[in-house]
Design brief:
Blueprint: H1 4-17, E1 23-24, E2 40-45, E3 50-54, E4 60-61, H2 66-78, H3 99-103, H4 114-127, H5 131-143, E5 149-150, H6 152-161, H7 163-174, H8 182-193, E6 195-197, H9 199-210, H10 224-237, H11 243-249, E7 254-256, E8 261-266, E9 270-275, E10 278-279, H12 286-299
Antiparallel strand pairs: 1-10, 2-3, 2-9, 4-6, 5-6, 7-8, 8-9
């Protein structure tokens, strides 16, 4: 039997002792208020046994991790039509890069970079009656947890400084790949990114990606083909221009966010979330990546 708790205890001790090499994101001013020394890890196996250590119950801004959830909701709404508006290739560029968008005529490389997630936000704004409320409800239902909320201060802070996202949205609009107005789509996108959750809640939500599309209460939300596609995108596009490095070091599909969170998973086995706000140069949590590398090495469990 896999002894997850022992692994997490060992990882916690070792990670806490490492020097803090990364930097907390500050381009969204509200994110810079978080302490760089936080570290939490939480794991849920396919039987819903849970294991954790450190600050796993402390909430933080999930940021880009939310892109997996908005994509999933868009797939629920319009199915394969999503792929007419966004591609499925790794970008090899930072999450907010704009040059490829111009080269490729307004079709974002994938739904997990900002431009792609903004197109997905546009789809949800068109499809949902009350987009912000309905998306939050979707996340709460997946987690079976009504305490999950947006962090309005983070959403406001990003709205005030999100110049690159305004640029991306305007470029998308100029290529005809945004149906709603820029302000409305970005208001939704900034709220989506401001989801305020802890590592345990992230595992609750991401359980469906290890359980063939069924949430913790065994209700189906995505079909197995949709899960296959979303998990493939997490593996190839989930870590900005460090997806190769993450696959090499950790060997799991996953998604990171500039709030310092990472979720990673092994289908049919477990999902795991880490939080450590100090980011490496590529924008991924430095200690989170180190912890997950240790987890797959110690447990000898990865998709490879
Ligand atoms: N809301 C953030 C942005 O658009 C998300 C970035 C991230 O977590 O990668 O800049």
């Amino acid at each position: 039997m896999v002894v997850f708790q022992q692994h997490l205890d060992r990882i916690y001790k070792e990670i806490i002792a490492l020097p803090n090499t990364g930097k907390v994101a500050s381009y969204i001013p509200e994110l810079a208020t978080v302490s760089a020394t936080k570290f939490g890890i939480h794991l849920m196996d396919i039987n819903q046994n849970i294991f954790s250590n450190g600050d796993s119950q402390e909430k933080f801004s999930v940021q880009s991790i939310s892109k997996v959830l908005s994509l999933s909701m868009a797939l629920q709404c319009i199915g394969e039509n999503v792929w007419e508006r966004v591609d499925v290739e790794p970008s090899g560029d930072p999450f907010n890069h704009l040059s490829l968008l111009e080269l490729e005529n307004g079709i974002p490389r994938n739904p997990l970079i900002n431009a792609g997630a903004i197109v997905i936000a546009d789809i949800l704004v068109s499809q949902l009656e009350n987009p912000k409320e309905d998306f939050l409800k979707f996340v709460r239902v997946l987690a079976n947890d009504t305490s999950i909320t947006y962090d309005k201060n983070v959403a406001k802070s990003e709205k005030e400084t999100g110049f690159k996202n305004y640029a991306a949205a305007n470029l998308l609009k100029s290529y005809g790949n945004l149906n709603n107005d820029v302000e409305t789509v970005l208001d939704f996108y900034f709220h989506q990114c401001s989801l305020h959750m802890n590592c345990a809640q992230l595992c609750d939500v991401f359980y469906l990606y290890i359980n063939r599309g069924k949430c913790k209460r065994d209700v189906a939300h995505l079909n197995i083909n949709q899960i296959k596609r979303v998990n493939a995108l997490m593996l190839t596009c989930g870590f900005y221009d460090e997806a190769g490095e993450f696959a090499f070091e950790v060997g799991l599909p996953g998604k990171s966010g500039v709030g310092g969170g990472i979720v990673a998973l092994l289908p049919n086995k477990f999902c795991v979330a880490t939080w450590s706000p100090a980011l490496n140069k590529k924008g991924n949590s430095a200690k989170g990546m180190a912890a997950l590398e240790q987890l797959t090495t110690l447990s000898e469990l990865s998709i490879f």
